[in-house]
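Input.
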Amino acid sequence: MAQEEKNKSIVRRLIEEAFNKRNLEILPDLLHKDFVNHNDLLPVDNKKGPAVFVELYTKMWETFPDIKIHNHLMIANGDLVVIHDTLSGTNTGPLPDGKPATGKSVKFEAINILRIQDGKVIERWGVSDNFAMMRQLGQIE
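Output.
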């Protein structure tokens, strides 16, 4: 298997096994010990290593217990993998700012760039359509 296909396989496992199947135990297999998340989707205390995504995923699942990622596009070039996803779920847990759950469903897009080193994700840059998510939750108009 070509290196770029191996890199895509790592990212695919991060989406399907770690996030969608709620399997935090595999994160050390997928994220480098020096992993850095350059853009916070939600504020997290951890800034390095697999603990970043353990905390991030846990917070997301508390807010949206049924949230899933649907991947639309995955492109690998050298040590980079670019993904375009849609996240969808129902807000039944408190919002990150402490506001109570809305009970509303959301569907929003995200684009991420992940850099692979030594068979693991070592860096992530990403943006998500937080405006669409907050609008769907009724937090902004």
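The first helix runs from residue 3 to 20.
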